[in-house]
Amino acid sequence: MLSRFLRPTTRVRPMFGLHNCAQPRWLSTAATNNQSPHEPKRFTWKAAGLFVATGVGLAVYFKNEKERVTKERKKKEYEANRSFGKPNIGGPFTLINAATEKPFKDTDLHGQFHLIYFGFTHCPDICPEELDKMSDVVDILASEEKIPGSKKEDLPVVPVFITCDPRRDTPAIVREYVKDFHPAMVGLTGDIDTIKRVAKSYRVYISIPDEEDDYLVDHSIFFYLMDPQGEFVDCYARDKTPEEIVESFKTYKQEYLERGGTK
Amino acid sequence: MSALPESSKPPTRAERKHCWKLRDEYFTCLDKISIIDPAIVDKDPSRAEGCLDSKKKYEDGCMASWVEYFNKRRVIDVRQKQYLEFSEKMSGK
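Predict the joint structure of the above. Result:
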């Protein structure tokens, strides 16, 4: 057989392809090598199959690698940006859950996205409007995800109300107040010093007058969106509609899951 | 549970709506006689005789702090609207 390769050829043959060539046909599974050099080599299915399989294998490998590298890069970018522009809003707290009158920690909200609003029950119009808006956001998202009922644990985002007026807003009063807006709304109160500290950690401005009974509390008006790990995501002002907040939330949730965020 | 003094209990949703309705009726009356600041009526009731009835209903149906707040807000909102119209006119030129 060796003599075949030592035989001088007078024609230029392509290196690869289906033509007969002077190179050892190590991929060839042809039954015989006895064909004339002028006849085109018979197409072998095994060779073609191996070629295609190798190609597919390489494509799959590179696709996976690319996805892995992209995910890693996204995570690194996020971490890098976080240390620069992200405000340090929120933080640990222990308040009183109006529903149970027992202590309630910030960690009790972990595991789900949550929206926090600071207000007071004697608010003339802004707080009721904002809390209705927050309830609409929760209901729109729950119905989009086809969540039956309104158990707090099942909701895509948990609505939370923290009072700025703990002197008048006792647990009983907060309990009645939040029930009127959403059955799963968490109402929190506490002593004035703790409330002031928590408000400060959220950069919420509160001004409580000295009057005895009938007064209004001046406070900043925002919803604070926090992620399942208790990290600040964004805040929404009065001019945002429920639909705008829903769309914004869905974008943030998607980003969170893409970064590998756990629920 | 101990009984809470009445002023500590916040208005319910129905009571809020009722107060807003009375407020809107009174403010509509003031709009008709071109009075922006309700405090003017307090100082000189004769300037708004046709509205004194709705004024009383409004003040009885809402907490005093709310009445003060809504009255001040009315002035701010009207002034803001006038300013916006003015600046739009100016930028239009």
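The first strand of chain A starts at residue 94 and ends at 97.
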